[in-house]
Amino acid sequence: MTEEEIIRPENLVYKKPTLMNDRPMHYCPGCSHGVVHKLVAEVIEEMGMEEKTVGICPVGCAVFAYNYLDIDWIEAAHGRAPAVATAIKRLWNDRLVFTYQGDGDLACIGTAETIHALNRGENIAVIFINNAIYGMTGGQMAPTTLMGMKTATCPYGRQADLHGYPLKITEIAATLQGTCYVSRQSVHNVAAIRKAKKAIRKAFENSMSGKGSSLVEIVSTCNAGWKMSPEKANKWMEENMFPFYPLGDLKDIQP
Amino acid sequence: MAKAAEGEIVLMKGNEAIAHAAIRCGCDGYFGYPITPQSEVLETLAAEKPWETTGMVVLQAESEVASINMVYGAGAAGKRAFTSSSSPGVALMQEGIAYMAGAEVPGLIVNVQRGGPGLGTIQPSQSDYFQATRGGGNGDYNVIVLAPASVQEMADFVDLAFDLAFKYRNPTMILSDGIIGQMMEKVVLPPFKPRRTEAEIKETCPWATWGKPKTRQPNIITSLDIDPNSMEQRNLHLQKKYQTIREQEVRYEELFCDDAEYLIVAFGSASRIALKVIELCRAEGIKVGLLRPITLWPFPSKRVEELSTRMKGILSFEINAGQMIEDIRLAVNGKTKVAHYGRMGGIVPTPEEVVEALKQNIINQTN
């Protein structure tokens, strides 16, 4: 069999989503962002919403998400993405409007905007990357940093008397009347990626059917910030992050 | 009241006039948070229910920070949206306003000023002049600032502010105060103008983020540029735009200046007091004129300079510690004496004390 015989449309089993362009990503090798970007692109394409989607970028590593997915984007101020998304969805209500935020952005400086947008039941989807660290600024303590975990601003490990406790904002989101779907996923292996994609799809579909707010947390690695190899970071996440941030749906309201 | 017939004279507060004017001039959305002395804007909008008539969205946000970011999102998506607040609340919005300026997002901010600093007082003041005209947030930028002096101008400036915001893709501010916001006057509300259709938004705002069709590249609204060379280019582009605004959008009103020997420069509610000051002075034979800047940025520097050449002295009368006087002095450049009079902390000066200040600080010093 020649190469030409193999490269045929009917033999295609996988391709890069057409919404993803060819720009080299700025993310570190081993980072979870690239996989989640791809899932978001795939879901938008599969829903046929390529021309009707507006994404809101955070401040943090994903600040440049707009460089990689060929949709309309707005770069929000740190933590304010849910407020920005609120207005767009209310004024263009047939559009798919989602935010893509990290833990510092969503669970620290933007806590008020996050909680209130979700509690109002804005028909938006929130993708929440939780890697327990501020990646972009060089690995400082995040609201989600685990007890004992070392970062640039808790170099001897997070301790309660000095730094307080890690915040489970996804659990809080699940208690809000405005949320219809709250899920925690990861992308560290193929099975997890498939589940994460299903969760993102459900969140996006909910926002289009007007069921209220959806939040999908992706427990992620920041191997550069954690100062580990990508492989070791995945293992560390399984052993340390998952026990504190257990995966699965926290809330799924059926119509 | 929104149903007031075209041209009908009605009586209402300045804050109410803002709300009614917004509904009537094709505004798409309002996002705000309660604060005295401007809460009637949101209250009036909530009572009028424009979402049932024009489709305008009205939302009470969780904070001023959220409000301005909602305006940012709405403007980025090509919609005519505004927020209103008073001084401490507008201080909270400065981050969002800087982002709007940096990302060239149109939108309107109404500041019904109260005395400061800090929590200050709920009584009127003009002490946010610096904050409004110097940018207020981080970076080199300017906001177009309109200063209404009547309830009528509160109504008239809403549509004008939106037009300027979209013409220049820049945030615009109506800088009012607790006097103009709270006092009732007769007003003719602007004629009804429909909200722009989706097709009209797409045509007039090709840069806006409403979903990328196959026919164009993605629209990206951002103020970020990591590369200093292109960030400098972005800044140069902004400065060029600001220069165009300085050249084309200066607005002011001039009264009794033809024979005047002394000039009062005053904006907003202070200009109303200044009219009585001029009446009292002229009764004594002192020829005083008024220059009322309507745009505080761009400031009518050229006109101030022209007038300064034939004035014995200029009084900057502001309800603050002396802020606009800096712009006057820059324009006058030493050609004539310039002094300030004002009160702070929510005290509104009487015409008599301004007359006295004019005599003490200008007339007695120049004769």
General description of the model:
The complex is a heterodimer of chains A (255) and B (367). Chain A is of the alpha/beta class and 255 residues long. Chain A has ten helices and nine strands. Chain A has helices at 3-6, 33-46, 81-91, 103-109, 111-119, 160-163, 169-175, 190-209, 223-226, 230-244; strands at residues 53-57, 72-75, 96-102, 125-130, 133-134, 140-141, 179-186, 213-219, 248-252. In chain A, the strands form two sheets. In chain A, strands 2-1-3-4-8-7-9 form a seven-stranded mixed β-sheet, with helices on both faces. In chain A, strands 5-6 form a two-stranded antiparallel sheet. In chain A, helix 8 links the parallel strand 7 (179-186) and strand 8 (213-219). The longest helix of chain A has 20 residues, at 190-209. Chain A is globular. Chain B contains 14 helices and 15 strands. Chain B has helices at residues 14-24, 40-48, 64-76, 87-92, 94-103, 129-133, 151-168, 178-182, 198-204, 228-248, 268-283, 301-308, 324-332, 351-366; strands at residues 9-13, 29-32, 57-60, 81-85, 107-113, 144-146, 171-177, 184-188, 220-221, 252-255, 262-265, 288-293, 295-297, 313-317, 337-341. Chain B has a seven-stranded mixed β-sheet with strand order 3-2-4-5-7-6-13, sandwiched between helices. In chain B, strands 10-12-11-14-15 form a five-stranded mixed β-sheet, sandwiched between helices. In chain B, helix 11 links the parallel strand 11 (262-265) and strand 12. Classes of the chains: A alpha/beta (255), B alpha/beta (367). The interface between A and B is medium-sized, with 31 and 39 residues. Strand 2 of chain A pairs parallel with strand 9 of chain B, so a sheet runs across the interface.
